């Protein structure tokens, strides 16, 4: 098993100087296994996000789709307690702490042409309160791995602060301390692969202004003002906003003053769509009721106030969260439909002017929105001893697909945003089936492998000859 490195080959590299015309994904990096490093704390069983705790000890899984691990090397795999394949062999899972695994995830971005990721920085996990040292250290560790992987694989990254579940009075305090820590102790902005826009580092804040979170427009303005003034060179700040941010209803805070605060405080708005629709008709309804109005509102704001704000729609492959919700959400609640669910979102967004897209999420197996590989067929799914937990394969909707199918779709979208393809209404099944024959794309002969990519690229047979690192 080999893992080709784009730094040692000439795979086309993402341009870190701009967020424009990019397909970026969210990267949680939160799947940890027993034996993958120093535990969160003394006596901890080591399983985080995969399981509440080991199933043989009465625990439960937190994920519905079972990941395809066929390309991982043995050193990256950890025995999933209590789970075996149909032939009786041990089942395994990966850890987001393993350097080869994180690089593998970003290598897959490179080979498919996905530009990079927003690394989730959970505000509730990086505070410095006593007793939180273990998980904070792990989040720093994952951040280091992501930075290294982006530099090796020619991808871009930016920090996304997720404030969900954090007391409003603590949000700014934690972000201020942590951002200083990331700049000065971890050197995130020293990386040549940190994403910028017009010379300013890109930072995202997800979760302000949602209903029942008791945030205020003043908090929003204060946090963004700190990030702009403290960050060398200023900052380009993106808001992970409620789907109904513009109308102050449903998932959005009822205070109408938030609307102007969004537009004044941020350089980009990215309304959250996961859970807001579950089939193609609902996708179209969401477009008609929300997206068109969002584009119009932002365009009018620019005319009236002279400030441009980018619109970064969230698209996702589908969703399934039965295990993570303990049965409150259905298995396969938002069916992927062989990629057509994701495609319809991308088509609608592109048709109405989207220049940037945010894919949620590259590795989010918990809620089943992951782009990363899932086993193709049901018989490949392991089972526990009592056969009490069911999981999903990609054939759940009647489509037999390669496990990397959704990474291909993300790469297709990335190329379309750069004008190299078209996102038409018809699902490009043939092009996606032929995807591996033309990818990865390579830089033009003579271009520097360390710099931003050119517009061309060599394809096909050269891939087999690309230098490789044994995994």
Automatic annotation (TrEMBL):
Name by which UniProt lists this protein: Uncharacterized protein
Species assigned in the record: Artomyces pyxidatus
């Amino acid at each position: 098993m080999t893992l080709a490195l784009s730094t040692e080959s000439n795979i086309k590299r993402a341009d870190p100087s701009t967020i424009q015309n990019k397909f970026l994904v969210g990267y949680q990096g939160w799947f940890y296994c027993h034996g993958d490093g120093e535990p969160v704390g003394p006596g901890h069983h080591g399983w985080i996000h995969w399981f509440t705790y080991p199933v043989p000890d009465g625990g439960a899984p937190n994920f519905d789709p079972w990941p395809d691990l066929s390309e991982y090397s043995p050193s990256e795999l950890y025995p999933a307690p209590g789970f075996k394949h149909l032939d009786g062999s041990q089942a395994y899972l990966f850890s987001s702490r393993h350097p080869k695994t994180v690089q593998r995830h970003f290598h897959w971005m490179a080979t498919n042409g996905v530009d990079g990721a927003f690394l989730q920085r959970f505000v509730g996990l990086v505070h410095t309160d006593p007793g939180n040292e273990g998980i904070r250290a792990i989040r720093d560790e994952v951040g280091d791995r992501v930075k290294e992987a982006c530099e090796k694989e020619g991808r871009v990254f930016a920090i996304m602060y997720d404030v969900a579940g954090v007391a409003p009075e603590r949000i700014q305090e934690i972000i201020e301390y942590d951002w200083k820590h990331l700049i000065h102790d971890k050197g995130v902005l020293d990386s040549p692969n940190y994403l910028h826009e017009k010379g300013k580092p890109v930072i995202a804040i997800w979760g302000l202004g949602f209903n029942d979170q008791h945030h205020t427009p003043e908090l929003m303005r204060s946090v963004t003002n700190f990030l702009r003034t403290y960050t060398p060179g200023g900052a380009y700040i993106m808001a992970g906003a409620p789907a109904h941010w513009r109308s102050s209803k449903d998932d959005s805070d009822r205070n109408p003053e938030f609307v102007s605060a969004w537009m004044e405080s941020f350089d980009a708005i990215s309304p959250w769509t996961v859970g807001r629709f579950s089939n193609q008709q609902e996708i179209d309804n969401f477009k008609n009721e929300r997206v068109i109005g969002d584009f119009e509102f932002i365009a009018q704001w620019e005319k009236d106030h002279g400030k441009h704000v980018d619109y970064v729609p969230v698209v996702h492959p589908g969703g399934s969260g039965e295990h993570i919700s303990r049965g409150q959400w259905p298995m396969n609640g938002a069916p992927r439909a062989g990629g057509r669910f994701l495609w319809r979102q991308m088509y609608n967004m592109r048709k109405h002017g989207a220049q940037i897209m945010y894919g949620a999420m590259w590795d989010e197996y918990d809620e089943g929105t992951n782009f990363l590989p899932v086993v193709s067929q049901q018989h490949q799914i392991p089972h526990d001893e009592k056969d009490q937990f069911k999981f999903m394969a990609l054939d759940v909707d009647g489509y037999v697909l390669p496990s990397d199918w959704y990474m291909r779709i993300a790469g297709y979208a990335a190329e379309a945003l750069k004008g190299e393809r078209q996102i038409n209404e018809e699902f490009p099944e043939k092009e996606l089936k032929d995807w591996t024959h033309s990818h990865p794309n390579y830089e033009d002969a003579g271009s520097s492998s360390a710099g931003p990519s050119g517009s061309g690229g060599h394809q096909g047979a050269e891939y087999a000859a690309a230098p490789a690192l044994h995994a």
